[in-house]
Specification:
Elements lengths: L7 H20 L6 H13 L2 E2 H8 L3 H13 L3 E6 L2 E9 L1 H22 L4 H29 L7
Antiparallel strand pairs: 1-3, 2-3
Helix pairs in contact: 1-5, 3-4
Length: 157
C-alpha cells in the first residue's frame, strides 16, 4: 500500500496514546485519569447523565463507570442526584470544583493539541481534521448499516 495507509490503525492508535500521555503528564496534579477527565467533559457538555449513558459515551462497562463515579464522588468531582424524570435512576452531575477545573484543564488540552500539531500549516491542520471527521462518518455510518443488516427484523432483499 502507498502513503503508509497499511499502518493507519497503528498511527491513529499511537497518536491518540501520545496525546493522552502528554495530557495526563500535564494534568497529573489534579489527580484524575484521562478517563475521569473524559467523564467530566461529557458532563460539562450535557450537564448531567446517567451512569448507563456515561458508559455508552466512554465505551466502557457500566460497572467500571460506577466505580469511577464512586471515586470521583468521594473526592468531590461529581455527585449523584435523583433523575427528575425517573426517581429510580440517579444522574451524575459535576460539582462546582469540577466546573472550575474544567476551564483550566480545557486550556491545557488546547496547549497539548498545539504541541501535537506543531509544524503543520493551517491548511494541513484543516485537512487533518476534515480527514478524521470523514473517517468517523464513514465508520459510524457503516456500523449503523451493519447493525441494520444483521437485525432479526430486517427485511431480506
Amino acid at each position: 500500500m502507498t502513503l503508509g495507509i497499511d499502518r493507519l490503525g497503528l498511527l491513529l492508535h499511537d497518536a491518540t496514546r501520545a496525546v493522552r500521555r502528554r495530557f495526563e503528564l500535564r494534568t497529573q496534579d489534579w489527580g484524575l485519569s484521562s478517563a475521569q477527565w473524559r467523564l467530566l467533559v461529557s458532563l460539562k457538555r450535557d450537564a448531567r447523565a446517567s451512569q448507563a449513558r456515561l458508559a455508552e459515551l466512554l465505551e466502557i462497562e457500566p460497572i467500571s463507570v460506577s466505580r469511577m463515579v464512586d471515586r470521583m464522588e468521594q473526592t468531590g468531582w461529581v455527585r449523584r442526584e435523583p433523575d427528575p424524570a425517573d426517581r429510580r435512576v440517579k444522574v451524575i452531575v459535576p460539582t462546582e470544583r469540577a466546573l472550575k477545573a474544567f476551564e483550566t484543564v480545557h486550556g491545557v488540552a488546547g496547549e497539548v493539541y498545539a504541541e501535537a500539531l506543531a509544524g503543520l500549516s493551517d491548511p494541513e491542520k484543516a485537512a487533518l481534521v476534515k480527514a478524521l471527521n470523514i473517517i468517523i462518518e464513514n465508520l459510524t455510518g457503516e456500523e449503523a448499516a451493519c447493525a441494520a443488516r444483521t437485525r432479526p427484523d430486517a427485511e431480506s432483499t
